[in-house]
Write a structure and sequence with these properties.
By secondary structure, the chain is α/β, with parallel strands linked by helices. It has two domains: 239 residues, Spore Coat Polysaccharide Biosynthesis Protein SpsA, Chain A; 83 residues, no CATH class. Strands 1, 2, 3, 4, 5, 6, 7, 8, 9, 10 and 11 form an eleven-stranded mixed β-sheet that branches. The longest helix is centred in the last third of the chain and has 28 residues. The relative contact order is 0.10.
Length: 359
């Protein structure tokens, strides 16, 4: 097969059929669809049985999405691999458009795309990337033209006239991705041959196992981006991004800690890269350590652990003296201080945006 699409699923039977259908209804037909059931306890198997002969189904004991994707990649035979979460959807042209890109530009190691955010209560954001990754894009610090040195007309690789006014891009983005979350990993399609060089996904990076894997892909060569939504991300209760209290403080801390772990691994394990970029790397590591300390102080009430991460900030050459002092203060004082800090940040961001627009 040309493309292997991998759907890991766990107790998503109410959405799974819709996800599968959007793969089977693609305008590109040379696809094998691999569904890896990560130990579901609902009626997922009943849904799967209705697609007998049209998909590859594999059951594993519950092990998490990284393991499920790895099993899918080991089963894959396609030249290219793409992912689809079992609660999300593809646009019908998704595979065709990305295959055309990778076929045209043989030096590109992967291609990802814009995507749409939606929910079942009529929320719909057609071009959702810059909202989803607002930490990278909200101040206007990054544009596609800055991120990618090559801007390409979609007509260069697609015969579909509907997209000929749109653009794609290509370039080495490993550095940019290491410091800013700019890739929507669900939308990526990459060459299966890369797996022999970079290996599979790692469970040690928790929530960011996919980001860390994508970083390894990006390190191998130029990356493509198509500024057309090809993927639909569904928001619904039960997702990590929508978890309510009391789990939210724990999840927020784990998210930030996992991101710190990814950055530490990719910088400190590459001593040449670390020495060459030491000031910028230490600044980023201190920023991420601070982001772990904040929810520990603000929500979890774990001041001792918070100070461990604030000590890391100091070790990286960026001490957080105010936060260190606040970690010994009563909770009410801390909340007021956090509110004032957030107001100051909003004002500074607003001024920067106005100055940038004047330029």
């Amino acid at each position: 097969m040309k493309v292997s699409v991998i759907i890991p699923t766990y107790n998503r039977s109410q959405y799974l059929a819709q996800a599968i259908d959007t793969v089977l209804e693609q305008t590109f037909s040379d696809i094998e669809l691999i569904v890896v059931d990560d130990g579901s306890t609902d009626d997922t198997k009943r849904v799967i049985d209705s697609y007998s002969g049209r998909i590859i189904y594999h059951y594993i004991p519950n092990s998490g999405p990284a393991v499920a994707r790895n099993v899918g990649m080991e089963l894959a035979t396609g030249d290219y691999i793409a992912y689809l979460d079992s609660d999300d959807l593809y646009y019908p042209y998704k595979i065709e458009l990305q295959v055309a890109y990778l076929d045209k530009y043989q030096d590109a190691v992967m291609v990802y795309s814009e995507f749409t955010g939606f929910d079942d209560d009529h929320f719909h954001d057609f071009r959702h990337l810059q909202t989803y990754h607002k930490s990278a894009y909200k101040t206007g610090a990054i544009t596609y033209e800055q991120l990618f040195p090559k801007k390409l007309p979609v007509s260069d690789f697609s015969d579909n006239a509907i997209w000929h006014a749109e653009h794609a891009y290509m370039g080495h983005i490993y550095d940019a991705y290491l410091y800013n979350t700019v890739v929507f990993t669900n939308s990526m399609m990459f060459r299966r041959s890369l797996l022999a060089e970079i290996g599979l996904q790692s469970t040690q990076f928790g929530f960011f196992h996919d980001l860390e894997f994508a970083l390894r892909v990006c390190k191998q060569g130029p990356v493509g981006f198509i500024d057309i939504p090809t993927y639909k991300l569904r928001y619904h209760p039960g997702q990590v991004s929508t978890l309510d209290s009391p789990k939210r403080p724990e999840v927020a801390t784990r998210l930030q800690n996992d991101l710190l772990k990814v950055t530490e691994t990719h910088t400190k394990n590459d001593t040449g890269y670390y020495r060459k970029n030491l000031p910028r790397i230490n600044q980023q590591l201190a920023k991420l350590a601070r982001s772990v300390a904040m929810p520990l102080m603000g929500y979890a009430g774990d001041d001792k652990r918070a100070r461990e991460y604030l000590a890391k900030c100091k070790a990286f050459g960026h001490p957080e003296r105010l936060l260190w002092t606040l970690s010994y203060m009563p909770h009410i004082v801390r909340r007021i201080a956090f509110k004032l800090m957030e107001m100051k940040k909003s004002v500074v961001t607003s001024i920067r945006l106005k100055l940038r627009h004047r330029e």
